Amino acid sequence: MHDHRRLGRELGLFDTDPLMGAGLPYWLPDGALVRHTLEEYVREAERAAGYRHVYSPVLGKRELYEISGHWDHYRDDMFPPMELGAEQVLLRPSLCPHHALVFRSRSRSHRELPLRLAELGGMYRSEPSGALGGLTRVRAIHLNDAHVFCTPDQAVEEARAALGLISRAYADLGIRAARHRLSLPGGGGKYVADPALWERATALLREALDSAGLEYETAEGEAAFYGPKIDVQIADPAGRESTLSTVQIDFHQPACFGLRYSGPDGARHRPVMVHRSVIGSVERAVAHLLEVHGGAFPVWLAPVQLVVLPVGEAQEERAHEVVRRAGELGLRAEVAGPGRGSLGARIRRARLVPYQAVLGEREAADGSAAVRLRDGRRPGTLPAAELLRRIAERVAGRGTGLWDAA
Ligand SMILES: [Zn+2]
Q: Is Transcription found in the keyword set (predicted)?
């Protein structure tokens, strides 16, 4: 069974230090590479789907969260306020209030809707220290978040489109949803009271799930304090479930912030907010990828995509030449030369790297490479340029395959 903490340390992806604090992991160069690649993938998918990206600060005044309702309903999960002169500021528990203010910063027309604002931003949760571990329970979270401001008529289509983005991303990442859950409020005072709006939002989410053709279960007591949500549940190799991606339809926060747009009738109307996250937090996404793939990331995400193995010192120069050409194609490649041990030992050490190219005397002389795949297949010897072209094609296409039989 794969434990992402052990793999993270073994592969040099991330770590923690008691001096930085529990639940505050840092990312090492190879981990940062995976994270950058994942973040850029999501941003690209979002741009293609009509989202615009913004940046907003991780701090906000206490009044901001009083207005949003977080202060009343979510305070136990927030870090205590910091005194700053006469003001109190807080580490934000979510990005929604900031994005509501970005929407409110200009007068908005119905012609701008749906306005899709995305941000991969930091947020903070004061998890109890006993619950912290690795990347799955952290106090600093970097969420792939977005808020779609739209008319009530557009909300179902926006939620359905978000579900489509999620399933495409899961296919590219080689992960799968364990199930879809429609999370509803439970008893207790955790939730804002407005039964009519809860019912309306729930009906729209059901419509989105149905139009996406997705089966789902309902769960009481799992909603956000301000509204119901669709949770895309993932399961670790031990079968433990957690939520990775979410889609919500929210009538509450647009009202809290007094959001308006001018309609075709010239009157002012209240927009709906669709909150959605495609890959959830980068922390949980990378933890899950590690556990599902046992550290063997899909080619496009792998920190090193190709290891070139010269059999002897005489082939080292040629090996560096292949790595240089791989770099020109945007591939991440490195040489593991004879100084690092026997060929067998070097091959074993590179067992998670998708492609290995062995260069013996013959290959170095004729510009070819003997190709090995990490799944044990050996497609044979082919021109090095042809190998690099095939890897670059595979990276550009995303997805999880290694090689197509010619
Ligand atoms: Zn939100």
A: no
Measure 276 CA to ligand 1 centroid, in angstroms. Answer: 7
pLDDT tier at 406, thresholds 50, 70, 90:
low
Give the number of other CB atoms < 10 A from CB of residue 366: 10
For the entire predicted model, the pTM comes to: 0.95
Where in the sequence of the chain do the CATH 3.40.50.800 domains occur? 299-396
- Ligand 1 center–CA 247 separation, angstroms: 9
In sign, the C-alpha dihedral spanning 236, 241, 243, 249 is positive
Give 94 Cα–ligand 1 centroid separation in angstroms.
6
Q: In terms of residues, how long is the chain?
A: 406
**Cβ contacts of residue 321 below 8 Å, gap of 6+?**
none
Q: Considering the chain, what is the average pLDDT of its residues?
A: 95
At 129 the pLDDT is: 83
**Considering the domain 299-396 in this protein, what is its CATH number?**
3.40.50.800
Residue 60 parent element (H or E):
strand 59-61
- pLDDT tens digits, one per residue of 340-361: 999 999 999 999 999 999 999 9
| CA 148 to centroid of ligand 1, rounded, Å | 9
Residue percentage of the chain with pLDDT more than 90: 90
* Spacing, Cα 286 to ligand 1 middle (Å): 21
Q: From the CA of 145, how far away is ligand 1's center (Å)?
A: 7
Compute the average pLDDT of residues 14-27.
94
For the domain 4-293, what is the CATH superfamily, name and number?
A: Bira Bifunctional Protein; Domain 2 (3.30.930.10)
Q: How far is the CA of 143 from the centre of ligand 1 (A)?
A: 10
CB atoms within 10 A of CB 50: 13
Ligand 1: distance of its center to the CA of 391 in Å?
38
Contacts of 174 (CB under 8 A, 6+ apart): 289, 292, 293, 298, 400
Contact 232, 241 (CB under 8 A): no
Cα–Cα distance for residue pair 139/5, rounded to 1 Å: 16
Q: Residue 106 half-sphere exposure, CB side, CA atoms within 13 Å? A: 8
> CA–CA separation, 378 vs 371, rounded Å?
6
Q: 154-187: per-residue pLDDT in tens? A: 999 999 999 999 999 999 999 999 999 999 988 7
Judged against a pLDDT cut of 90, whether residue 132 lies above it is answered with no
